[in-house]
Every structure is written in structure tokens, then in C-alpha cells.
Amino acid sequence: MGIVNRTPDSFFDGGRYLDDDAGRSRVDALVRAGADVVDFGAESTRPGAAPIDAETQIFRLGDSIAYAVSLGLTVSVDTTLPAVAEHALRLGARMLNSVSLAPAATFGALAARFDADLVLTHCRGSMTDMRGFSTYDANGYGDIVDDVVAEWTQAAHLALGAGLPPERLWFDPGLGFTKNAAQSLELCVRLTELKARLGHPILVGPSRKSYVALSVTEGGTPAGPTERLGGSLAAVLDCAARGVEMVRVHDVAETVQALAYQRAVSAASKRMTATRSPNHEHGGGAACSTA
Prior knowledge:
Layout: E1 2-5, H1 20-33, E2 37-41, H2 54-61, H3 64-70, E3 74-78, H4 82-91, E4 95-98, H5 104-113, E5 117-121, H6 144-161, E6 169-172, H7 181-189, H8 191-198, E7 203-204, H9 210-215, H10 229-241, E8 246-247, H11 252-275, H12 278-281
Parallel strand pairs: 1-2, 2-3, 3-4, 4-5, 5-6, 7-8
């Protein structure tokens, strides 16, 4: 999933794609890079960001969604407002990406009506209420997986109860959202457990986030958003190895290349295992013919 932020204040690329020409160019670049889904957002999800009303979000989105749909792309809209979600769905979007559990019932009904998918991201409260990047009380969770599963499942029941088919519902652990770096990292480590317990496809968004920089910083100042590509790619590869179905990233070309290498290594390993002789499997020497 490639990101198109039609915002002036997103933490990494705010202001780059505000006008329609820049938005279309960004879509074209994501297509060339190999994005499978294009995710449009018109409201920043950085900590402390002010809420943006539906009319302003729709204005900011401009012709981006219609343009991407005209290219045959799978389009997602990143919003928590029903009016923005319905606007995008009427233009042909096929995924709602909510960074809040609050609109679960309304979004479930909307997604069901338009035969779309819904991503529910675990987060406690709004972006405006978050104190800072990857800042959260170390004692804010008991067992973080237990707590996240319980809170997300409660919202999921509302979405499913509104008519959303289970296969249309996605889980996003909300890395960095009302979680400190250690808590986000633990969720990544336990993604296989989350997948088994929830039974829904998983979308993760580690791209350029502060928890990535904080996780690899031993004293000193962590790298800023423009210096986090290496950590972001490592996070994506680790999450992919743990079975997630989709990654939401700013750097699509680099991510596609890294994932392709990971798949090539996996395929080569399987071929080598399949062709290895029984003697080699048990540490023996050259194989002998028994014809």
C-alpha cells in the first residue's frame, strides 16, 4: 500500500502532494514503483494533529481518487469521518482505512453497502490527544496483545454486526499510536500470535515511524523521519516474515525490491532443501549409487 498524503502537516511528507497535479504525479510514481493499493489521506495522523472537518478533507482530496480509479487501481481512503468515507466510496474507492476504532459500526455499514474492505486500526483516543511520537505510559497495558485483541475485537463486533462480511475486515495494530516504542516492537514480535487469535488479514504501517528509530537508538537523538529508510525496510521485512498480508509504506520502490529479495531467498532455500540428497540431510559425505 503506497501513501498519498494530501496534507500540509504529515510527519514525513506533509505539503508535497497538496495540489492535484502533484497528487496525480504521486499516483503515477506509486504505480511505476509497484504499489498494489494507493491510500489517500487528507488529515494528518501525527500526534497532536488538529482534527480536519469533512468538507476540508474532501476539498484536499481533489481529483486524486477519481484519477487513481480511472487507472484501474485499488484505492483506499484514510479517514475517520463517515462523510469523507462515503465520498471516496462513491468515487470508486474499495477500502476504508480508519486510524480509530470509534467509527467501527458506521464504517462497517458503509463498507458493506459499497462492497469494500475495512481496516480498523487499534488506537486509544484521537491523534489530537496523543502526547508525542511513540510516547505512552510504560504501564498503560497489561499484556499488550491481550489488551489490543480485546479492544480491537470489541470494535470488530460492531463492524461485523453492521453487515460487514468477515473476509472484508482487516486488523492494523496501530504501531506508534498510543504505544511507546517498546510496546510497538512487542506487537511486531508477536504478529504471528495476533494473526492466529484474530483470524483476520493484517495491515501494518511501520514506514518512517518514530518507534523504528527509537528501537535502534542507544542513547543520543534518534534519526529523524528522512533518515529512517533502513529501519523501515527492516521492519517491513520482519513483519512480512511473520505473515502480514499488506504493508503501508512511503517508499514503495525500495520496499518492493526488499520484499522481492526476501522471496527469492526463501524460494532458493526451498529448492536447495528439496534437491539435497538424504546423505546431505544427515550430514553425510558424497551420495552413493544403489542401482
